[in-house]
Amino acid sequence: MVFRASPQLGPGLEDVYDDPAVFDAQGATQVSPQLGTVERGSDGGEYFWVQATGDIAATNTTGTQVTMTFATHTVDTGSGGFYTPPATAVATGKFCWVRRGAWNANPA
Predict the structure, then answer these.
(1) Considering its fold, how many domains does the chain have in total?
(2) Of 76 and 5, which is predicted with more confidence?
(3) Which of 2, 16, 19, 60 could form a disulfide with 41 if both were Cys (CB 3.0 to 4.6 A apart)?
């Protein structure tokens, strides 16, 4: 199991979420994290908080490769070098972390 190695609060790196939430004990009223937030995982990988613009099938071991649109921090199936969590499908409109490079590979 990969976990965030930074001191940020927030959603787990291997989970998919229906709606973003506020992970802030200080009374914030805006969703946290914001799309495009970058975290470092305990495996040394770099993770980006994104929203799916299409249904993304699950792929065991490596996760499914996706292409990220950086202007909107959205992803869809493609060859962009980012990967969804292994063995986890991501439906259109859902939120998740994508890893730069496959989950079973050394950090890119």
Answers:
(1) 1
(2) 76
(3) 2
